[in-house]
Structures are given as C-alpha cells and as structure tokens.
Amino acid sequence: MKIVVAVKVVPDDQDIQVAANRELDYSKAHQIISTYDLNAIEAAAQLAAAHGATVTAVAVGSAAIDDSKLKKNILSRGVDDLVMVADDSCANLDAHATAAALAAKINEIDDVALVLCGDGSADNYAQQVDVQLACALGWPVVNAATNIEATDSTATVKRTLEDEVETVEVSLPAVISVTPDIAIPRIPGMKDILAAGKKPMNMAAAPEVPAETIEVIECLAPEAADRLGNVAEASAEGAIDNFVAALKAAL
Amino acid sequence: MKAFVLAEHTDAARGLCAAARTVADDVTLVAIGDVAVPESCADEVAKIALPEGNAVENAAETVCALADEEAPEVVFAEPTRRLKIVAGRLAAHLGASVITDVTALNDGVAESMYFGGLANRKMKAVGKAVYTMTCANYAEAPASGANAVKEVAWVEPANAVKVVSREPIVKSGIDLTKADVVVSAGRGFAEEEQLDIARALCDKLGAGLGCTRPLTEGVDWLPRETYIGVSGLTISPKVYIAAGVSGQMQHMVGCNTAGTIFAINTDKNAPIFKQCDYGIVGDLKTVLPAITEAL
Ligand SMILES: Cc1cc2nc3c(=O)[nH]c(=O)nc-3n(C[C@H](O)[C@H](O)[C@H](O)COP(=O)(O)OP(=O)(O)OC[C@H]3O[C@@H](n4cnc5c(N)ncnc54)[C@H](O)[C@@H]3O)c2cc1C
Q1: What pLDDT score does A141 carry?
Q2: How far apart are the CA of B120 and the nearest CA of chain A, in angstroms?
Q3: Domain B181-294, classified CATH 3.30.420.40, yes or no
Q4: Fold match between domain B2-151 and domain B181-294
Q5: Cβ(A179)–Cβ(A127) under 8 Å?
Q6: I need a surface site. Which of A78, A178, B37, B95 has the fewest CB within 10 A?
Q7: Best residue of A34, A124, A148, A215 to probe chain B, by most B CBs closer than 10 Å
Q8: Positions in chain B whose pLDDT score sits under 50
C-alpha cells in the first residue's frame, strides 16, 4: 500500500517584505513547506508506519521550489520518496490546475490507496485542492479529518465540522485532507536529515496544465492602521501604571 | 443572469440569496437535506432530499446535474467544510476554481485575503464564477423571490461518502464578537493553569477571553470558537489585550480593527509591538497580575 501526501512549497511569510507600492516582495523569502502540510506529512508517516505502507510526497510548483534543503526537509519526516515538478509553467496554479498537475503525477504511481492533503495552504488557504484532486482522480474525498483508520479497502474518518463531529466511511483509493490537530509534526534529527539526502528525489517533467480559471488583478498589502506603538519595558519606572491608565481611558 | 446559492444554515441562505440578487435576476437556492428555507428569498428553491446515510457532499452530482439543466453563471456557497466540497465538485464540473472567503464583490471582482492577510487580492473568474463567502456584508440587503419549489431528482454519487455517526459539538456559548473588551492569550502561556491569570484580568474588566489558533489545536485549552484570526473570528472590540501573542498576520487580521490594542510580550522584537497602541515588554506571569491589581 502506498500513501501519497501532497505538499505545497511556499515562500516563508516571515520573510515576505511589503514594498513601498504595497506589493509583496518575496526576494528574501526562503522556500518552505506550507505550515499545515507538515501535519499532513506526519499523519501520512504515522498511517504508513501502522500499515507497513510507504509514503511518497508529491510537490508541484515553480522552478524556485527545487531547493535541496527543502527537499531534504520533506524527506526527513518519514517520507520514503519525493516526486517534484519544479517548473515555472506550474507557478501560482489555481486549485483546478494544481489538481490536474498533481493527478497527472499521482496516476503514474502504482498502488496508491490514499492521498493526504493539509488543511489549507499558507498563501491561498482555499481548501480546494483536495476536492478538485479527487474529481481529477475520480475518487471520493473527505475533508476536516481529525482521525483516520484504514483497512485495505476502506477508510473510516472522523471529521470535525463546524457544529458536529461526523464519522464517515469511504472506499479506497480516496483523497483525505486533515486538520492540524490530526498529528503534531516531528522535529527531524540530524540522522533523519542525513538519511533524507540518500532517498529518491524524482524531478519530474511538468505535465500539461489547464488554463487559469482565476485571474489575479491585484495583490496589495492593506494600508497599515496607525497605531501609537507606545512600548515600555515592564521594569521601567511607571510602565505598568501608564499602561493601566491608558487601558482605563480606552474602556 | 442565473445564480445558484448553496447554504447549510438559514441565515446564510437568506444573506447569500440577497448577495446573489445584487448580480443576478434569477436566483435558485439549492437546499440540500433538511435546511430550513427562509421565506421569499429566491425565485426557485431546488430541494434535494438526502437519502438515509448519505453525507451532504454526496449531493454534489445532483447539484452538477441541476447546473447542467439550469446553467448558472455564478454560484455563492456558504464557507462550511461540507459546502466547500460541494462547491469544489461543482467548480471542477464547470472547469472553474472556487474563489474562497470573499470579503467584497464588486462588478465581478472578488476580494480575498492572501498569506493570512499579508495582502488583499482582487480576482476575477475567467469562466463561471463560484464563490464562498459569509453573509456578513449582506445582513441588511433584501432577499426576494417567490420561492417556487422544485424537487430535484437524486443522482447516485460515483464516490459516495457514507455517514456512520454524528455527534454534536457542545459549544461554549461564548460570543466574542459582542464583547467590548477582549483579552487574548497566545502561546506565551506555557501551561493551561496559567490561563487563570488571564481569566482574573477578564473578570476585572468584564472582558471575554480569546486566543490564538494554536491554543485550540493539538491542545484544547480554549474552545475553538474563541480563536481570532483569518481562519477564526474577526472582531472589533473597543479594547484588545494580547498577552503572549507574537502578532502574526494570520492572527492580527482578526483583531486589527479594534479600537485600542494593548500587548504584553517578553520579546521586544515581537511583531505585535509594531501593531499595538500600548505595549509592555515583560513576562505575562508577573505583568498580567500587576495590571489586574492596579485596575
Ligand atoms: C493557513 C493558516 C491559517 C492560520 N490562521 C490563524 C488564525 O486564524 N488565528 C491565529 O491565531 N493563528 C492562525 N495561524 C497561525 C499563525 O500563523 C501563528 O502561528 C499563530 O497566530 C501564533 O500564535 P501565538 O502568537 O500564540 O504563538 P507564537 O507565535 O509562538 O508566539 C508566542 C509569543 O509569546 C511570547 N512569550 C513567550 N513567553 C512569554 C511570557 N512568559 N510572557 C509574555 N510573552 C511570552 C513570545 O515572545 C512570542 O512572541 C494560521 C496559520 C496558517 C498557516
């Protein structure tokens, strides 16, 4: 049995600068695993360990995601091998195109029982690749999973919705997206990172992707609200009193 | 123009029908399962009865068949987990992508947050438009229509999701959107018991206790419905007091319209200090009790 985990690589938002014209400047930002995909990777690794399965990570993105540190990071988390498409034809794909690209690569892998996705990507957080991918593969989909129990042919999934916890059953293969609390990401050790360098990294050819379905017209940082920024050390004379006085005045 | 509305809750159904009415002269509310349909909100109410044991998402094929028949140009869906799947399947069927969590819609240009609020993005659907959005902007807008009922024939799903059981989530009943003063706890709280010093400050101020997302996930220190930010609550209290909160954008977009923002953090370089009115660089374990005491 094979478990695939779909991993999005994004610029680290801690290092994204806002330019004077309010556009986002990514030039100083490293490529990282989108935060909540770490939890999906961990869930895949734990499921695989429990079922004697293997985990393949699949990532699709621009040429910039071909970063050796990042690839080792993915492979140091209980992932057996990586299939990556790093091509500028796959930069900033919408959910429809991302799903088509992922499906093209997943269809080349034998014996896939499950594809796991994260809760939503750090950039778009649209929570749409799971469902579009299921459509592209012709498989069932379940989102918001907080627990997964799999047999050879079915998965029983606990999903935490807005107002209820629903337990559902689907036949495999299936696409399941997981919430962050399904599994806390491991912190890879030196040994894991060294071993990761020896694992298979398959830089795959870019698949044909469908035309964009969403046109981005503008992407600008909001005007920063004017705040007083009156900050004092707790130990400074009168700091707490001034803070409390301001608090009382604001009530 | 024809619009479809997909909603799980009556308020959302009414609000999104009103939203649809601003762009479409023909509105169909697609009511899956036992949604209570608001009065006079749409031209047509397309009722899809859910056969026993079926997940709501199993209605997606039926919705797609209805879309083939009625050819909507635009679809509005409530941003619930289930409807994100139904809307996603419909979008895939239409060769579209859902534009999610739309905060404003003008002349076919939808606005939505990018990178947790680092930027706002304006987007246009190239073909058919499918949006998810809350009805917050349309609470006052009038919905109208004859609500002509149409019973839609069930289409058996190819990839069914079978419901085994359902258990309601017991909610805390806390509604921070109505609080004038909110104290917000972040990961600077090292253990659950420490929250008591935040609660003591809340008691003194008559404030509500909110938090950052990590305090509701993995650890269950506070109820999920009290976390603030891009994927949680958006609130505008008079006073917001953030303690042990670093000030990541994903959190701040949920509270940055507050009247006055106060922050307590041990790290003088924490981003929150650039986004607050008054800040104390210090340990919340001593600073919060000192504030409570001095009030
Ligand atoms: C797609 C996506 C969506 C997200 N949505 C949300 C959301 O809606 N809401 C949300 O909150 N987060 C959200 N997050 C997470 C967000 O990015 C941050 O990780 C989170 O807000 C950080 O929470 P925090 O400030 O409590 O923790 P941290 O960032 O860990 O900050 C803890 C702070 O406490 C300070 N501190 C430590 N000890 C003390 C002490 N003794 N006294 C005082 N200060 C102390 C530290 O200096 C630090 O600044 C989202 C993330 C992603 C990727």
Answers
A1: 98
A2: 6
A3: no
A4: yes
A5: no
A6: B95
A7: A124
A8: none
Handedness of CA B104, B106, B108, B114 (dihedral sign): negative
Q: Is the pLDDT of residue A163 over 90?
A: yes
pTM, full prediction: 0.96
Which residue's entry shows tokens 């797609």? B64
Which domains, from first to last, does chain A contain?
Answer: 2-226 (3.40.50.620)
Q: Domain coordinates of chain B in residue numbers?
A: 2-151, 181-294
Neighbours of A189 (CB within 10 A): 10
* Residue B262, C-beta contacts closer than 8 angstroms, at least 6 positions apart: A243, A246, A247, A250, B239, B240, B241, B242, B276, B277, B278, B279
Helix/strand/coil (H/E/C) assignment for every residue in chain A: CEEEEECCEEECHHHCEECCCCEEECCCCCEEECHHHHHHHHHHHHHHHHHCCEEEEEEEECHHHCCHHHHHHHHCCCCCEEEEEECHHHCCCCHHHHHHHHHHHHCCCCCEEEEEECCCCCCCCCCCHHHHHHHHHCCCEEEEEEEEEECCCEEEEEEECCCEEEEEEEECCEEEEECHHHCCCCCCCHHHHHHHCCCCEEECCCCCCCCCCEEEEEEECCCCCCCCCEEEECCCCCHHHHHHHHHHHHC
Interchain CB contact of A184 with B (< 8 Å): yes
How high is the pLDDT of residue A121? 98
Rounded average pLDDT over A175-196: 97
Is B98 within 8 Å of A136 when comparing Cβ atoms?
no
Q: Is A33 an 8 Å CB contact of chain B?
A: no
* Contacts for A230 with CB less than 8 Å, ≥ 6 apart: A246, B277, B278, B279
C-alpha–C-alpha distance, residues B25 and B21, integer Å: 6
In the numeric block, the tokens 């909603």 are attached to B7
pLDDT digits (tens, 9 = 90+) for A188-202: 999 999 999 999 999
Question: ipTM of this predicted complex?
Answer: 0.96
Domain range B2-151, CATH class: alpha beta
